[in-house]
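We treat protein structure as text, and this decision shapes the records that our systems exchange. The tokens are whole numbers drawn from a learned vocabulary of local backbone shapes. One such record is reproduced below, unchanged from the form in which we store it:
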Amino acid sequence: MAEKEALVRGYAEALFAVAEAEGELAAVEDELYAFAKTLEHETKLREALTDPALPAENKKALVRDLLGERANPHTVNALGFLIDQGRARDIGRIAEELAAIAAEHAHVGWRRSARPSRWTKRNANGSRRHCRGPRATGRGQDRR
């Protein structure tokens, strides 16, 4: 199990490095999280993306068709990379790990709360405060 966690962490670190270098970390993090949540609820989509009998190109085309122009191109590319690597089943865990890495690097304890439309910020004294989450478009917004 530790090997699987290290693998997930490695993919999350790779996605973090690319998204941060491109200046698109917030958008990629938000959209990857939203896509992972969609996979949790959409059984047919999850089955299609994790079916070993389907070619990776078909799976990536499905993601491109679903997200189209609505998603950041870096998010679409990241999802395509994970599909190419056979990691579609791990997208949720990778998205969570990406959020944790981003929080570590930002030195701010942003975490998604149980309510999907809320963000929780850990203040310096350890208390939590709720903030508005990403917009319905999946694009990030100013988090104070």
Residues 2-108 form a domain with the Peroxidase; domain 1 fold (CATH 1.10.520.20). Residues 2-21 form the longest helix (20 residues). The radius of gyration is 15 Å.
